[in-house]
Design a protein that fits this description.
Layout: H1 18-32, E1 44-48, E2 51-60, E3 66-67, E4 70-71, H2 72-85, E5 90-101, H3 106-123, E6 126-135, E7 143-152, E8 169-172, H4 178-187, H5 204-213, E9 219-221, H6 227-239, E10 242-246, H7 254-263, E11 277-280, H8 282-292, E12 302-308, E13 315-318, E14 324-326
Parallel strand pairs: 5-6, 10-13
Antiparallel strand pairs: 1-2, 2-7, 3-4, 5-7, 8-11, 8-12, 9-11, 10-12, 13-14
Length: about 350
């Protein structure tokens, strides 16, 4: 467990949990303070020339660079496209920055670039500008990638974590914890009977399908670092509602559950890269679920809980034995370098 009062940066600061939140709150937010940044959503929503835009950036340091179902190039596109989609925006343009370690094989760099380009085409975005830097051998880890993106938010769309309300339904678009276990199966040389493929995918098409039938979606999040538990805790705290999950409804594939058991992990805290969590009004829940299930990336969508007035700002889950347990935000990171 990383020390909360460490005077130096530790891996837990990059895990998406409480230590990450404290780093942002105490160092970055005061330094860059403005009203847009203070929302701390997946993307910044701004008005420019009469248009409502979403703007986001993300950096990718995954190890290994290639894994079942994807690569750092796929993550670099899908991660930023999905952050924009969580504001209801259709991503349009990306920038891309490569940080390369001296000694990295050019064939590896070329393969990552090709995969990044193909992922951009699949997501319907164009990479318009970029940058490349090289660091001395031993001062990097092969290849790091940063992408930033912009997209247009249609009129009438207002998706943000503060909009969750008591009675709202919590929906997840499919099986959770798949990406993290796919990475760890390669990293640690583990086998679970079948190869676990990362769920890395662009979710902008799925979001547009949802908004076509239910334009008043209250909240969207892609539960990456810190997993579903961290995303739901952030939503609960931002909106002041409690969230109750039903454990038996959580979609965890058997192979992933076995992997989590072997590694001593809770699937709720394991990263996803091709899933979203949606919070919608109860009157929109059935239509939203039906629409999601028509899309390839939402075919296994399921309602897993509700927002409640009780225990405001907290997430709990009802267990199979009829009790409840608190699902807190992790302090650090169960699986470092996962995206």
């Amino acid at each position: 467990m990383p020390l909360r009062d460490s005077p130096t940066v530790v891996m837990g600061h990059g895990g998406g949990g409480q230590m990450s939140a404290e780093l942002v709150e105490h160092i970055f937010v005061p330094a860059f303070a403005n009203t847009v940044l203070s929302g701390l959503a997946d993307s910044a929503v701004v008005s420019l020339g009469g248009a409502k835009l979403a703007f986001s950036t993300d950096s990718f340091v995954v190890r290994p660079l290639f894994f079942p179902g994807g690569s750092i190039g796929d993550l670099a596109v899908n991660g930023t496209v999905n952050d924009l989609a969580m504001s209801g925006a259709q991503a349009a343009y990306l920038s891309c920055g490569f940080i390369l370690e001296e000694g990295t094989e050019l064939q590896v760099v070329g393969e990552i670039a090709q995969r990044l380009g193909r992922a951009a085409k699949r997501a319907g975005v164009s990479v318009l500008t970029g940058d490349t830097k090289v660091v001395d051998a031993g001062h990097g880890d092969g290849v790091f990638v940063n992408t930033a993106g912009i997209g247009l938010i249609p009129d009438g769309i207002d998706i943000r974590p503060q909009r969750a309300q008591p009675g709202d339904v919590v929906i997840v678009s499919g099986a959770i914890a798949v990406h993290g276990i796919a990475i760890m199966s390669v990293r640690e040389g583990l086998e679970f009977g079948i190869e676990i493929q990362s769920d890395c995918a662009p979710l902008n098409g799925l979001v547009q399908t949802m908004l076509a039938v239910a334009p008043d979606v209250h909240v969207l999040r892609d539960p990456t670092r810190g997993g579903l538990a961290t995303s739901l805790n952030e939503i609960a705290q931002a909106s002041g509602v409690g969230i109750e999950l039903t454990e038996r409804l959580l979609p965890v594939p058997e192979a992933v559950a076995n992997g989590c058991s072997v590694l001593g992990l809770d699937p709720l805290y394991v990263a996803n890269e091709g899933k979203l969590v949606a919070i919608v009004a109860p009157s929109d829940a059935d239509a939203t679920l039906a629409a999601m299930r028509t899309h390839p990336y939402g075919a296994e969508a399921v309602a897993i809980g509700t927002c409640v007035e009780a225990h405001a700002g907290m997430v709990v889950t009802r267990t199979g034995l009829g009790g409840t347990r608190v699902v807190d935000t992790p302090i650090g990171e169960q699986l470092p370098r996962i995206c």
